[in-house]
Amino acid sequence: MTDSNVIEMKKPAADVLQDVLKLGARDLLAKAIEAEVTETLAQHRDLKVDGKQAVVRNGYLPERTIQTGLGDIPVKVPKVRDRSGEGIRFNSRLVPPYLKRTKAMEELIPWLYLKGISTGDMQPALETLLGDGAKGLSAGTVSRLKAGWESDYDNWRRRDLSKRRFVYIWADGIYSNVRLDDRLCLLVIVGSDASGRKEVLAVTDGYRESEASWREVLEQLTQQGLKVPPELAVGDGALGFWKALSKHWPTTRQQRCWVHKTANVLNKLPKAMQPKVKDALKDIWMAETRDAAHQAFDQCITRFGSKYPGAMECLAKDREQMLAFYDFPAPHWQHIRTTNPIESVFATVRLRTDKVKNCGSRKTTLAMAWQLMTTAQKRWRKLRGYALLADVIEGVKFRDGERVENEDQQQAAG
């Protein structure tokens, strides 16, 4: 009997595409690792033993899997044999011995937590996002990861900063779906060092508008050894940070964030007017000189002040602090006009609704926020024109983004 009543069920197109992508990722990873081992052998090609090449291929390590956004990807890492006795080994930079999951996973779990997903609900959420490849991330595994990150966070917040110098800092208060009460939030500070490298300086909890909360953050940084005040601080005008900063580091210049200012002004306007006013605001912070910015400032207030006084009063507040960036190198302006280093990391976990928030452990919430930021930090680029930071540190004057060269110009800029 040749006929069959069994009907073959075809895979859905999405599953086929997933299989193709996984197969492609596996082949691409294998080729990349092969290129790495070939490079290692080439580096030691002149090392000989009895006239023969000392460093040679020696099979593969046992196959293992790496958890990725496409699910589990099998990988085999080559081995090399060193006959010279110098201990030369091959360790893939792409797949180091300790790697069991990709960096995307290290961000995904904190992101889910800060979105309000509990540990018990995280497995289904991960399976939805990653497919069956998330099966190794049980609630117990996630709990162990969280415990490890909590320990790492405790060590990090006590690290020594005595040999560090940070030229610019950015500060913000972040509300997420994990809240300890109605007003408590994450207080975050990011700094740029003298080489232009940005890094997370502080992640703790407190009250966004509280001077006392921010003073504790700054005092903690000083206790860790950060003695030299930054040259410029960037943040939202609503923060209690500014009062704390003025007392703790009175010499630090202040720059209000244009992203926050724009949002605050637009929130006081009818939707139909928001595009016009937004363009007018852009004319201010995109002006090439401070004088041109002041002119655009006045034009905006004159144009919209009579109909929308509340919005224009919001704009006029902190006017000088909105334009502090003109006294710093022009290549740095795109970095110091906003708190983007912080905004970009937490954009998807900011609280945007009045829904009931999940309650979370304080320690775990801080550790998750820190993990999310420090993972993102690895992708941050240096400041444009970072070589000019040396001039900023030395106290060189800048006017409209340009270095002031002679004494008369220095006095005018001062």
Protein described:
With 414 residues, this protein is α/β, with parallel strands linked by helices. 44% of the residues lie in helices and 17% in strands. It is built from 16 helices and 15 strands. The protein has helices spanning 13-43, 103-114, 119-130, 139-156, 211-223, 241-248, 258-266, 274-285, 290-304, 309-316, 319-322, 333-336, 340-346, 362-377, 389-394, 407-413, and strands at residues 48-49, 52-53, 55-60, 64-68, 71-75, 78-82, 166-174, 178-179, 184-193, 198-207, 232-235, 253-256, 358-359, 398-399, 402-403. The chain has a five-stranded mixed beta sheet with strand order 10-9-7-11-12, sandwiched between helices. The chain has a two-stranded antiparallel ribbon with strand order 1-2. It has a two-stranded antiparallel ribbon with strand order 3-6. Helix 2 packs across helix 3 (119-130) and helix 8 (274-285) runs antiparallel to helix 9 (290-304). Residues 4-14 and 351-356 have low confidence and may be disordered.
**Largest β-sheet summary:** 5 strands, mixed
Q: Which outline best applies?
A: elongated
Count every beta strand, where a strand is a DSSP E run of 2 or more residues.
15
Calculate the mean pLDDT score and round it. Answer: 81
Helix content: 40-55%
Strand order of the largest sheet: 10-9-7-11-12
- Computed over alpha carbons, the radius of gyration is 27 Å
Short description, anyone?
Helices cover 44% and strands 17% of the residues. It contains 16 helices and 15 strands. The chain has helices at 13-43, 103-114, 119-130, 139-156, 211-223, 241-248, 258-266, 274-285, 290-304, 309-316, 319-322, 333-336, 340-346, 362-377, 389-394, 407-413; strands spanning 48-49, 52-53, 55-60, 64-68, 71-75, 78-82, 166-174, 178-179, 184-193, 198-207, 232-235, 253-256, 358-359, 398-399, 402-403.
